[in-house]
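Quality-control log, excerpt.
Job 1 of 2 completed; input and output follow.
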Amino acid sequence: MKDPGRNMPRAILTALIVTGIVYLLVVIIATSVVAPASLAQSEAPLLMVVQQSSDAIPGGLFTLIALFAVANTGLLNFIMGSRLLYGMSRQGLLPEALGAVHPTRRTPHIAILTVLLVALALALSGTLTYLAGTTSLLLLLVFFTVHASLIAIKRRSGSTARTFCAPAVVPILGAVTCVGLMPFVPRGSLLTAAIILGLGTALVALRAQHPTR
């Protein structure tokens, strides 16, 4: 990217707008084909919409599409989680081993293996609903932290860099929205996320007490 200060904000905002429009279209189409009450009670609402709207798409094909979507989301979260651990390690918040980079592939392989172990433990510990709820809650915690960080950055003075600046109300609304959505996840997910957050806090505290480790 030749001018990230100008182009990156435009790219992110454009992607959010396009994605939001697609989600709204899916909601409008789904509720026009199947009653909202029926969709709320279904374990596979989009499959119900497809089955009632057309017989041209077999259920097996839709299953493959759903598996691809889940795998894609999992891969994105996997990459985000490992790079998050890598960045925190490079800033001295987590053990140095998590910031190691593979000499050939140039990827944070220790952080990737750590996220893999955590993901496997979560995948084997409960149902898909439980796993999805835990993942959603952890993502909300990450997003809340990002909004809170932006609020702290905006309170600082003296920055003259030419870049996109969101109004102060945006991160405030974002942080409040994240907190408001957290109670809607399963109770078991709340406990699991609290344990993971506690372990992360303990690692940060241990790193602060022993910065050379």
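Job 2 of 2 completed; input and output follow.
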Amino acid sequence: MGTCKYCGNKAGLFKNEHKECHSKYLSGTYKIPEITFNAIIEQSDFTKLDYDIGEIASHHFIKDDSVIKKYVIRGFNRVVDHYLEDGVLSIEEEDKLTEFLNHYDFNQEDLSEFHTMEKIVKASILRDVTEGKEPTAKINITTPLPILLQKSEYVVWLFNGVQFYEQRSKTTYQGSSQGMSIRVAKGVYYRTGAFKGNPIRTEAMMYITNGSVIITNKHFFFVSSNKNIKVAFTKLLSIDPYDDGIGLQKDGNSTKPQVYKGLDGWFVYNYIMNMNNQ
């Protein structure tokens, strides 16, 4: 006779759970993210949230603290995505997120499943740029950079594992989420929803190599073992946004369209465009 892993009572031959207990458990896993979401949005007392989460966990057979933590974080991530639906993270919204993180003492590793901390930092950087400010949030790089920075130049973001493609024929390459380059005015975001189309199609492009993309306040760098590229933002003729990368066209008659696949196209596009509009 098996025992229900939820309520601890007899479950029947070769069984380890009651159907109704399993349903109740699942219901609890839906409720925890929901009340977490509402508490952050409404800037509620997080001490009360602790109590409410404990009550749900107790009544829905959620006994593992790591499971509770996972669903609390999912609620937090829903708030971040909600705030970024318009592409903008206001100072008030960021303060609410910070207050929550301080209360629960979550770190970057805790939030790694959905890259939540990266989303917050990127949105904060874009907010500063649209306001004409130097970003207050920057990444920390512990290893030496394979690039030379100019005076007053600093690194804003680093992407590893980026695939570099270049057009090798006169075939016109199309594949951005909107089928064209889109210029944005200063302080205006190209929304995240527009980057949810099809991924980059690279049939018309030749794969060159893998490497890292480094974004500074002045340049776009691509570095690899056999190919290094440096492009000033002011020398870009166009930027094509994709949901999984960007396409660049540099100034010059002999330059060829390039595609960088495997980075956050929404962030890079909005950052460069707003920097150029300052």
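Post-run check on job 2. Residues 170-188 have pLDDT under 50 and may be disordered.
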